Amino acid sequence: MKPARTLTLTEYETATFPAAALPIPVGEKLYEQYERQQRVVQVAFPGYKTGGQWQLTPQGWVGYIPLMPDLHLALQPRVPLSNLFHMLAYAHQLRRFHLLPDLTQCDTLPGFYDCLAEELARRILHRARQGLFREYRLRAERLPYVRGRLELDLNAPPGTRPDILCQYEEQTIDNLDNQLLLWTLHVVDRCGLCRQETGRLVRRAMNVLRSSVQLISFTPAAGRERNYTRLNADYAPLHTLCTLLLTHSAPAMGAGTKPTPVFLVHMATLYEQFVAAWLAEHLPAPWQLEAQVQISLGDNQDLQLAADMVLHDGEYRPVAILDTKYKTPNRVDPADFNQVVTYAQAKQCPYAFLVYPQPLARPVDIHLPNLHIRSLAFPLAGDLEANGKAFLDLLLSEFAPLSGIINDI
After folding, report:
1. What is the mean pLDDT of residues 136-164?
2. Which domains does the chain have, with CATH numbers?
C-alpha cells in the first residue's frame, strides 16, 4: 500500500494546488462538511477566478483530516507545534497530573495524537492489572432462593412457582468510569492516526474492557463531570486524557453513518482556555480567576452573555474583565471594544482588558468614567512561560492604585 499524500496548509493562509491534486467529488465533500457545516477550511474550486487551481484556506482550525485513504489534509498552526502542545497541556490540565513530560517533543500533529493514545492505553492496561473500579448496582429479580432483601409479591396468583422477588446489590465494572474509557479507545481506534504499535496497544486495552463493559457514546464534557473518591481517584488523569481526545475528535468525510473521526483543534477556543489555565496556575494570592462567567442583562434577564475571565480580589469582588481575541489586527475592533465594556459595566469592574496573541501596532489604553480599558498581549511565539510572566507582570502593574486595598485584605 503506497504512503498517503499530504496537502499541508497553515491557518488563515491560502494554499494553492493544481486541479489534479484533489478529485472534484472529494472537494465537494470537503466543501459540504468542512466549509459549509463547520467552517474549518474555505474551499475555492478550480475555475477562472482561481486560475484553474484549488485554493484552500484554514479558518482558525489546526489538525489532520484523512480525505481519502491515500490523501490527507494537514492544517498547521501559525505557532510552533511545541507551543501548541504546551497550550493543550495547560488547557486540559495534563500538567496537573504530570502527564506526558516530553509532550512538547512531538514534531507532528498525528505524532502528538499517537502519544496521547499510547499513554491512555498503557494507563488503562495498568489499572486493569490492578483491578478496574467496581461499583454496586441495585438489581431486582425473581430467584429460587433469598438474596439481599426479600420483596413480598402480594399480587402473585395462587399455585404459581415459589420464585422469590429479591432486591440486592451487585458489584460491576460496567459503570460510567469504565464506559468512558472504552468509548474513547473506540474513537481513537477508528481515527486511524496512530502507529501500528499504538493501534495494537489500543485494541488490547479495548479487549480488556469490552468483555464486561458496554460501549456507550459520550460527549467530551463527560470527563469533566465525574466525581472521584479514594476508590477511583486514579481515574482522574485517565478521564483527562479522554476529554482531550474526545474534545478534538470530529467526524470526517467517510461514507456511512459512522465516519472516521479526525483530530481538530479550534485555536480561538484553545487560546482562551490556555490563558485562563495559565493565569489560574500563576496568579499570586489573593487574586482569583473565574472562567466563562455568565452575565444576564435586562429586567427579565433576556440577554445572556459569557465573559471569558473575571479577576477577583481577596474578598472575591470583581476587579477586571479579561477577553481573549485570537486575531492579529493592527488595531482593536470597535465591536470587541464595545463587548468588553459591556461585560465590565455589567460586573461593575473598574478594569477591562482585551488579550491578543501578539502586540497590536495601535494598542488601546482608554479611561472612561470608573473604567480603564486596555489591550494586552500574551504572545504565542517563543517561550510561553516567559511570555506569560511578562503578561502577568504587566497585568498586575495596572492594579497599583488598588495595592493599598489588597494589602489590607
Report:
1. 62
2. 5-75 (no CATH), 81-132+174-265 (no CATH), 135-172 (no CATH), 283-408 (3.40.1350)
